[in-house]
Write a structure and sequence with these properties.
This protein is α+β, with helices and mostly antiparallel strands. The chain has 3 domains: about 35-70; about 80-135, no CATH class; about 135-215, no CATH class. The protein has 2 helices and 17 strands. A hairpin with a 2-residue loop joins β8 (about 100) and β9 (about 105). Mean pLDDT is about 80; it is low at about 1-5, about 10-35 and about 195-200.
């Protein structure tokens, strides 16, 4: 080129170096613009990680294909967790207390408790309260009562039974009882095997050709 003849070789070399530098700078700028991600009002380069301002639980990576985002994965809470809290600054819930909840009451793991006179319970490691319930034998009476602090019902008046299926008259267990002038009944006294598996009625016998006082009175008025 003829225009180069008028300039020293050193100046020409300097110009060429500057020209190459400008061309490389332009190429880098274009490539950098193509491989960036815009989010949160900022520009991120490939390989950079960032959290979304709109959702602090979502983390993104800027890749050559754009932003690749995923929400924070929360670990599972303990099975015995009975108090869970959610804080605005946390992505995942927190377990504040582990234990067992039984009938509205909270118990620590391994704790033994007695929610009623008939139950003995233990708070297991899985957060479940497991209970043993007392097995009460059927009471030998038709009018059992439950005493405070005791699990099984008691026969306050002793063993007894109903005279008949009307269940209107109760007689004590043991010795036979004349329920009227012609009928004698007996309750089993609790020692007779299998009695309380029945209907709690007395065994009665009636005197032959006997008329009760009520029947005689009715005949006298006729």
């Amino acid at each position: 080129m003829s225009w180069c003849k008028n300039y020293p070789m050193g100046i020409i070399q300097t110009w060429l170096a500057l020209l190459v530098h400008v061309q490389c700078s332009v190429a880098f700028s274009v490539a950098g613009h193509e491989n960036t991600c815009e989010a949160n009002g900022s520009v991120y380069y490939v390989g950079e990680w960032y959290f979304l301002d709109s959702d602090h639980c979502t983390q993104c990576e800027c890749t050559a294909d754009g932003s690749a985002c995923a929400r924070t994965e929360c670990t599972s809470l303990p099975s015995a967790c009975i108090h869970v809290s959610h804080y605005p600054t946390d992505c995942c819930p927190r377990c504040e207390k582990i234990g067992c909840e039984y009938r509205g009451e909270v118990y620590d793991l391994g704790e033994q408790f007695q929610p009623s006179e008939c139950e003995q319970c233990t708070c297991e490691d899985d957060g479940i309260a497991r209970c043993l319930v007392a097995d009460c034998a059927p009471p030998p009476c038709v009018n059992p009562v439950y005493q405070k602090g005791k699990c099984c019902p008691e026969c306050k008046d002793g063993p007894n039974c109903y005279v008949d299926s009307s269940r209107t008259q109760v007689i004590p267990g043991g010795e036979p009882v004349w329920v009227n002038s012609c009928t004698k009944c007996r309750c089993h006294d609790g020692q007779d095997a299998g009695y309380w598996e029945g209907n709690r009625l007395a065994t009665c016998t009636r005197v032959r050709s006997c008329q009760t006082e009520e029947a005689l009175k009715r005949q006298g008025t006729d």
